[in-house]
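Re: the 238-residue chain
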Amino acid sequence: SNTKLSLSSWVATNVVPLQNVVASHNASLPVYVTEWSSACCAPQTGYDDEYNAAYLIYVAKYFQDTIYSEQQDSMIKWMSYWSISDVFEEGGFNSNEFNGLYGLQTIRGIPKPAFRAMELLHEYGGNVSYTAQLLSGGNANDTVIVYGLKQMQSSNRYAVFVANFNSQQLPIEEHDLSIYVHNEAEYSLLETVVMYRIDANHTNPIVAWKNMNSPLYPSQQQLQTINASSQLVAMQNV
């Protein structure tokens, strides 16, 4: 399915009309989205790999651009991702470590790329965004997104999130990116840059699992290796 179209359709047909109705009555009512994800009806390709991580970065920017500029301006106070773990009884249990199920973690607690995307958004994101612009015209399929967020935990740190995302089975290709940062304040100097990557070769534990011939019941040592491959590791030579 077209994930981008489904998301925009849901916002247009549900969220925006709801906001308008509440506003027309001068009511101040919170909205809680209790179950959402990139697709419906597991198993699905993408839940276990970098696709869902890129989707989460895309969703964060989409809502920042489409619904509100700052969290306090929105009726949506929180959105609960479905689900935390692959361990749930609906549809029965499956012993494979990676099943194409909804969870941010596998049945034995291995964090998937989507888990790490959430971790980055939590650690480095915030409600205040900075202006970001793609200068190149080579993004023909409109798949590359970039946005800057002020870090909530620190007044002198901010984060730039970049994702290359398109709905499954739609065109997408690799892009080389150069990031330019403009500091408006003279006293605000860019002193340190830390970069993390989530892609087919970084922070992608299903690759390590497949390289072990996809063991049904991984040993403790195998689980340690898989878990190590799921860690966010700062890139060198940034």
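The first strand starts at residue 31 and ends at 36.
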